[in-house]
Amino acid sequence: MAGKEARSGEGSDARKVKQRGRRQVDVAVELEVSQQTASRWHRQWIEGGNEALEGAGRAGRRPRLDDAQIAVIREELLKGPQDHGVATGVWTLGRVAIVIERLTGVTYGPTQTWTILRTRLGWSRRRPARRAVERDEDAIVAWRER
Fold it and tell me: In this predicted model, what pLDDT tens digit does every residue of 87-97 receive, in sequence order?
């Protein structure tokens, strides 16, 4: 539950629920937080009003790449690895990191590169299908139609 208690905006959720005349325990259950957290929110609301329940804002370090830079990276990656001098048609984390560094000047390791691909770009890991070099698509289609 500790992770859920740290979500931003929950104080405002608690304020809305509390303004409907609900008990602290009901607020805790509805918002999936501990009773101690609901009690703390209630005490803050009594002492400081609605302003006391406002979130503190973003926690943690700010991203090194802004949304405009991420958009440029997305466009470049969608062009494919061959457009960036890679012989194969496969992106690796190292290759993506090189493109990011070339476009933005920001250096990332594999873990951070994967986080950008997954969270900021919404991409998932995909592996290319392994196919024989000798594969004859026409012969396969003819065989299936028999």
Answer: 888 899 999 99
Q: How far is CA 146 from CA 8, 134, 135, 138, 141, in A?
A: 61, 21, 18, 13, 9
pTM tops 0.90? no
Handedness of CA 36, 22, 6, 119 (dihedral sign): positive
Q: What percent of the chain has pLDDT over 90?
A: 37
CA distances to 30, 91, 92, 131 from 128, rounded to whole Å, are 45, 10, 12, 9
Other Cβ atoms less than 10 A from the Cβ of 131: the count is 8
- Which residue type sits at 47? E
